[in-house]
Description:
By secondary structure, this protein is an alpha+beta fold. The protein has helices at 14-25, 42-47, 67-77, 89-104, 107-116, 121-142, 155-161, 164-174, 178-181, 183-193, 196-199, 205-218, and strands spanning 5-9, 31-34, 56-59, 62-65. The chain has a four-stranded mixed sheet.
Amino acid sequence: MDDEVILLDFWPSMFGMRVRIALAEKEIKYEYREEDLRNKSELLLKMNPVHQKIPVLIHNGKPVCESTIAVEYIDEVWKDKAPLLPSDPYEKSQAKFWADYIDQHKINMLGYQLWSTKLGEDEHEAISKKLVECLKVLEGALGNKPYFGGESFGFVDIALITYNSWFYSYETFGGFNLKEECPKLITWAKRCMEKESVSKSITDPNKIYEFVKSARKLRGIE
């Protein structure tokens, strides 16, 4: 009997995209269910009663919430494909550290503030600067390696590459140029996008940009 795998998701979500990539990397067949976050399904509320948010990976009726936890779960359950996390305990700890850095430094929230709120010039500049600084730290961690873990695409790459869908919007409304600020990160992103598991799992930046423009209009920003 095949595993039943369902993903509750919302198409613009960089967090949902992480789970999509991990599933694609492991070549796992799953049912995708798009959520209306203004009218959440009963299944979402049942499967994630604490946070009531996406993504939720449902494996044989059991929910796994939070994107990095879901990616790690996928890696541990489906071991027949190339691992996403290193087997070495120290290297694994470093991968988890940098994935945590991405979330704890709230790259998503900084970008969200840039496009979703009316900001004074000084506040706008400060948020843009902070976002670029976070990305420069990540670029330093990448160094000259093809991927964050070395030669193989893995956990940290999955945690960050989904922001590639959003970088264009962040740049546009943040007033900075990532190619100038973080050239190695842009080269890394292009390398990741050459992988079918990535290119078919994340949303086109132009589609995200149109989504952002519509959201800004609804908020009365433009």
